[in-house]
């Protein structure tokens, strides 16, 4: 890990009213890395991503992107700096077409390396269906549109929240195959997953979360599967 990672989260706590969903979480993502966060339902994974893009009510601690604090800044401003989110549940506009949904990604004003044609290159099926409303697409195709929309913002860091949720294994394989290609285009990736196997297969490093805390981290091939499973499910010492 370099001394100046792209994303540096230090001692982050997230509150919803009095409820503390994250407690003292510290996570780094370096340039060119795919980092995954694994954890069961309610571990705080989505809260972590939402905190990065300024979408939780209250945080304590520090979130730095390229050395600049993101805390207290608005989402559009954060996206403009180069962070994009593929949200949990995709959040497309169902009656808008593929092309219209993707166009919303341009709002940020960043204009960079990733073009529409590049994105259709990752997901050729979207080109065929670009004039079709999003609600007529399969779940996997909708996920591709959500990816495309985030990539059009030309991020340096892509945050992905459970991209495999509700999709068939063959479609999940296809999405996961594209992640290293996206990384090779200069986009670092922070990937949230419940699926331990898939997520560790693609990650350079991982963190495991349980009940709002990080309880294990490392490189997938340097940590035993037993330790990962124990940390994932918790249990009594
Ligand atoms: N808007 C909110 N208001 C109050 N509590 C919330 C809110 N969003 C999340 N929480 C709580 O914070 C905790 C962490 O939720 P979060 O959605 O971050 O978990 P997660 O790891 O993403 O879970 P999942 O795998 O089910 O998506 C949970 O206990 C949840 O009930
Ligand atoms: Mg979640």
From TrEMBL:
Gene3D superfamilies: P-loop containing nucleotide triphosphate hydrolases. One of its GO terms (molecular function) is ATP binding. Residues 7-236 form the ABC transporter domain. Keywords: Amino-acid transport, ATP-binding, Nucleotide-binding, Transport. It comes from the Bacteria. The keyword ATP-binding applies. GO terms for biological process: L-amino acid transport. Belongs to the ABC transporter superfamily. This is ABC transporter ATP-binding protein. It comes from Roseibium aggregatum.
């Amino acid at each position: 890990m370099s001394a100046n990672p792209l994303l540096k989260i230090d001692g982050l706590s997230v509150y919803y009213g009095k409820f503390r969903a994250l407690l003292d979480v510290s996570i780094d993502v370096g340039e060119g890395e795919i980092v995954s966060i694994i954890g069961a339902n309610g571990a705080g994974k989505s809260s972590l991503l939402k905190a990065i893009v300024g979408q939780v009510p209250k945080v304590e601690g520090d979130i730095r992107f390229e050395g600049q604090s993101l805390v207290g800044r608005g989402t559009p401003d954060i996206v403009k700096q180069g962070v994009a989110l593929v949200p949990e549940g995709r959040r497309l506009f169902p009656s808008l077409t593929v092309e219209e949904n993707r166009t919303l990604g341009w709002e940020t004003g960043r204009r960079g390396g990733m073009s529409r044609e590049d994105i259709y290159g990752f997901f050729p099926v979207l080109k065929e269906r670009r004039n079709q409303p999003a609600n007529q697409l399969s779940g996997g195709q909708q996920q591709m549109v959500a990816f495309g929309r985030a990539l059009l913002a030309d991020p340096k860091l892509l945050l992905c929240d459970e991209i495999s949720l509700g999709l068939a294994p063959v479609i999940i394989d296809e999405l996961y195959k594209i992640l290293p290609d996206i990384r090779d285009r200069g986009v670092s990736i922070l990937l949230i997953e419940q699926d331990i196997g898939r997520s560790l297969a693609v990650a350079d490093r991982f963190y495991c979360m349980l009940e709002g805390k990080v309880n294990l981290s490392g490189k997938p091939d340097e940590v035993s599967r037993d330790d990962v499973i124990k940390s994932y499910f918790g249990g009594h010492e």
